[in-house]
Specification:
The complex is a heterodimer of chains A (244) and B (573). By secondary structure, chain A is an alpha+beta fold. Chain A is built from three helices and ten strands, in the order ααββββββββββα. Chain A has a five-stranded mixed β-sheet, with no helix packed on it. In chain B, α3 runs parallel beside α13, α6 runs antiparallel to α7 and α10 packs antiparallel against α13. The chains are: A alpha+beta (244), B mainly alpha (573).
Amino acid sequence: MEKYYGWGLPADISTHGAAIDRLIYVLHGFMAVLFVGWLIFLVITLVRFRARPGHQAVYQSNHFKAPTYLEVGVGLFEAFLLVGFSFPIFHQYRNVPPPRDQAMEVRIVAEQFAWNIHYPGDDGIFGKTDIHLISPANPVGLDRSDPAAKDDITTVNQLHTPVHKPVIAHLSSKDVIHSFFLPVMRVKQDMIPGQTVDTWFEAKKMGNFEIACAQLCGLGHYRMRGFFIVETEDKFKEWINQMR
Amino acid sequence: MTGEHNLPFWRKYIFSIDHKVIGIQYAITGLLFLLFGFFLMMMMRWQLAYPGQPLPWIGHLFSEKAMLGGVMLPEFYNQLGAMHGTIMVFLGVVPLAVGGFGNYFVPLQIGAPDMAFPKLNMVSYWVYFIGGVIMIVSFFVPQGAAQSGWTSYAPLAVIAPTGQTLWLLGMVCLITSSLLGSINFITTIVQLRADGLSFFRLPFFVWAQFVTSFLLLLAFPPLEAAGVLQLMDRLAGTSFFMPSGLVVSGKVVEVSGGGNPVLWQHLFWFLAHPEVYVLILPAMGIVCEIIACNTRKPIYGYKGMVYSVIFIGFMSFIVWAHHMFLTGMGTKMSAFFQITTMIISIPSVVILTALVLSLWGGSIRFTVPMLFATAFLPMFGIGGLTGLPLGLTASDIHLHDTYYVIGHFHYVVAPGTLLALFAGIYHWFPKVTGRKMSDFLGKIHFWLSFLLMNGVFMPMFIQGLAGVSRRLWDPMQYAHAQPTQPLNVFISICAWLLGLAQIPFILNFFWSLIWGKKTDQNPWQATTLEWSAPSPPPHGNFEHVPVVYRGPYEYSIPGQRNDFWPQAMKEGN
């Protein structure tokens, strides 16, 4: 079995995650260079200017010009990080959903402490829901009298998606704030009760992965674990039919 | 003034209006709360290292509702987490850094006999004290203390048990106390400076406290208002932060609805980001004083540092939403907050660079306070640098709400601010008590604390990169968190040893109070005004009204007999 998790970043099976990972690596390289260079300067200074007999401090307070250039350099590099990495990546992540006709849509409704997954079925239309219909057997409160709801499927903690297929997830919460986190997908999005936020992703590898809650949501926060299963289109259809 | 000497004990030491007594009260209370908050964390570290195993000895001292058979329950873990954060920030570091050091040394460094409003000062301490008592009492109400994180996000906090109500009441007291204090500091610094002490002759520590006071004054009222609103949501049935259509545990929640949970986050972080600078600026001030004194030379770029600290003050009000990048905010909004976040890093780099360059050309005495102050520089450096991946939305997607965040802000406030506060204690102990702390114990305390703090916080970056979420009672539940579990054991052991490493400090503190080596009024041969007053300073501080003739850091002037030229000394030396 392939190892997904270790001491560094988790495996990345998303189509968009490489850019995020690259930024994380660039940043840490930059941080390491800056910090180590700076630390060497600090240590040299501490040794060279230690108090000892015959050594005198120099009365001066502005003996360097280099820092100004360093400041400007750091500032420019930060601007480069913003314009070159963060803005375009986040723009893609937040503003450019895949075309609806090519994507699979799914609603994910979080609650203390589970993920309710709502598939629209073959018609591609989500059935109406009503909070007063919510019961243990009907966790999203689906209105079965609605024609669009007839072929809808709901599952708990089981998010299956076909590989190489863009997924648009409509995220919401029933009770408190949760955060939908797919470590291997570089997807994290708060789920705020009272609003629906969309996120999207496309898996390029199959496997059995995890959904984690990233926002403290109560005493069961630690066990709000879901399963995220990426499989072939056929297997996915098979599973959907089984769930009906 | 003379009548003050005949005050009864309780007026002189308990309900005192002397800024020095109040400063000591703040500092002692703050230190005790720091220790208490640290105990809470040391208990949590057991659960994180050995999930679900009974906590030896201590576990059985708690009720079944907190520790069932010695095993920490998730709800108790969440209480410890929320209260650790609250106590460390609002009852520990701020009272020690601002209430303690600020109260004691700002009047002394500006040559004032006391704060501008001594009685207000006393009220400010006692309101803080009441806030602290409320926070502690909250552990004993049914279902325990606040357990929704120190951030108390709605709706979780609104539907939480009674402890949250007490948390909000406690916060209202703490914020009120800070407001009273900040007005007092601003007035004191503007009005009571000694003759000749212009703004650009102020020690950097005073500047740092001055800017901090403005942050407290302007940033805290929104949270006070928000706290009252959340209190109303909990007690009066309002819905400021409660949207319509909530279903909790399968039941529809009967609230009027129409509120917005994100509003709470905005109000909270509008306070809590400037709060970060409230935690760090006084620490920078302390470090600057100690570096100037122990390098025996002027500070590099003093004016640049002053402008930077003012600029940080302004900028800190427009970066708050970088804590909320993943709430679903639009890209234009997040672009704005990313830009301001990058901009605010520049003055912080300026200050840090200036402090490092100040060492160049000095004659560095590695006294105990200087060791702590020097260690602050790289530690704050790590804290600042690791803020970068969190301040850019793209990398924040993966790192948000993971242990990376915990590592980042702890590097700023624990190895950062706390080391600086220890530096301040060792540096000014002779002024407050007339005695010096032991160098031997101080060095043991320094090296152990310095190494162990890195042992605690450095591995958290690895956990964060691996995607381990914060606030998990049992990290073993997640496959992606299991590989870094050995690090949790390592961190916990470091944390417990760090607890033991504070024993030399505690011993040193009390031992030196009684048996420490007696010192004169200026044992470090420093220049700023507090060293021109007797040690300890009497009521009213100075024997003669001081007059200031020069800037704060006139060390090693060529051709002079002494290598320091005190601000209050008229003639050359």
